[in-house]
Structure formats: C-alpha cells, structure tokens
Design a protein that fits this description.
With 249 residues, this protein is of the alpha+beta class. Helices cover 31% and strands 30% of the residues. Helix 2 crosses helix 4. The N and C termini lie far apart (44 Å). GO terms for molecular function: DNA binding; DNA-binding transcription factor activity.
C-alpha cells in the first residue's frame, strides 16, 4: 500500500474513533486497525513522523506518542535515522501442539526456512537424556532459521532418532509433514520456556543486536505410545513472538 493510501485509511479510521478519547490514543487505534487489517504487511514501512503529522493535520507530539504506544506493544519497530517498520509479531498458543508452519499460516503469513545444517550423528549427552536413547543410537540433527514472509524470527534446532526419520533428506520445509508421512506425528509435548540474550551468532541469523532479548523454548514431543519422537530448542526474537496462555479457575 502506498503512503497516500495508508494515510487515507488511517484518516478514515481516525474519524470513526470516539471523540472523547485523547487524540494520540485515537491515532494509535487508527494505525493499529490499518496494521491488523493487513493494509500494511509485516516488515512494511510507515510514512515518517513528519509526513504523518502534516498529512493528518496533527502535531508531531501526538504522532510520536501514538507511535510510541504501538512500539511498546510490539506492532512497530523504530530505529533512529530509519523509517518506522511494521512488526511481525506472531501469537503462539501454549494450549495446543502446532508446528511453526501452522502458526505462521494462521497469522496470514508464509512460513519458510533457511537451512543451516542437516546431518546424521551420535546424540549428545543432553539429547540422550531428552530423547531417552543410548549413546549407540543415531539421530538426525537439523538446524535452521525460521522465517515469516521472508523475515527471520527464530532459530530452531531439532533432533529426531533415525528410527523415525532415517535420512535428513526426507525433511524439506516442515519436519511435522515428514513425520506425518511416516505415521509418526507427535500427539503431545512437554515444553519449558526461558529467556536469554542473543549471542553474536543469534544476532547474525535473526537480524538483531547482540544481547537482544530472546524467548527460548525446549520441547519434547511424544507419540501416542509415549515414545519421544523429537527434541527441539527454538530461539525466538523477543520482539516478534507472543506466547498466549488461557487460564481458568
């Protein structure tokens, strides 16, 4: 969408907001509505602060406050000297077992991956414990950058015993599709989460600064007969991924 079309869309949304709400909050809601309707795709650029202010006949203070609220909520990424970029936040429910590709498609984006390595190897001590296998077993170890509409949002390392996936060549873009084709689709998982700072290698793959916050998950996936089919560690860019919990009393 062109800057002019976007400004027209925001202007119409602004006219629909309640007049008793502070103007910067109305502007925030109008821009958010345009983003959520996919009028601007993740990674797309908004007009500059001055252009927005002049086109909408608003003060730059009002525009700046609205953009700051959107940045706090992760809908925008702002860097000094650059135009404002629409964020690519993805919501991940922790109540259902879904693949990365399913999560991304559910958000209206196209999943993809950049393979870093695929190999058959002996398991590490950590993998032996996580998968419940012996040192003499062999595993397929896969590492890749996961993308949404071409933007990197996670680095994923998966390990699967070769009795389930005998060759890494069987895995293309989706590990779960490869497992399903061999009737080894996971049915449940145990997952733990923690935070960590991005290493220099993480920063290179995820296009972020070293030390930027990451959300790290470790997941063990089980078959119906309780065999452990996959151990996976995923490092998500903290600025683009939201984990959603449903709590009931």
């Amino acid at each position: 969408m062109s800057d002019l079309s976007l400004i027209e869309r925001v202007s119409k949304e602004l006219a629909l907001t309640a007049p008793d709400v502070p103007l910067y909050k109305r502007l925030k809601s109008a821009i958010e509505a345009a983003i959520r309707s996919n009028a601007v795709k993740p990674g797309g650029l908004l007009p500059g602060e001055r252009a927005l202010a002049e086109s909408l006949s608003l003060s730059r203070v009002t525009v700046r406050k609205a953009l700051s609220l959107l940045e706090e909520e992760g809908l925008l990424n702002r860097r000094h000297g650059f135009r404002t970029e629409v964020g690519s936040r993805v919501e991940k429910s922790l109540s259902t077992l879904t693949s990365f590709s399913e999560d991304i498609r559910a958000r209206g984006m196209e999943p993809g991956c950049i393979w870093l390595s695929k190999q058959i190897s002996r398991p590490s001590p950590g993998e032996m414990m996580a998968l419940g296998i012996s040192a003499s077993a062999t595993v397929v170890r896969m590492r890749r950058v996961r993308t949404a509409d071409g933007l990197p949002i996670a680095v994923e390392s998966s390990t699967v015993p070769t009795r389930f996936i005998p060759s890494p060549d069987l895995v293309r873009d989706s590990l779960y599709e490869a497992l399903a084709a061999r009737s080894f689709m996971p049915q449940r998982a145990i997952q733990r989460m923690r935070s960590r700072a991005a290493s220099s290698e993480d920063a290179l793959h995820l296009n972020c600064e070293p030390g930027a916050p990451l959300l790290v998950t470790e997941r063990r996936c089980f078959l119906p007969d309780e065999q452990i089919v996959e151990y996976c560690e995923t490092r998500y860019k903290g600025e683009v991924y939201d984990f959603v919990f449903e709590l009931q009393r």
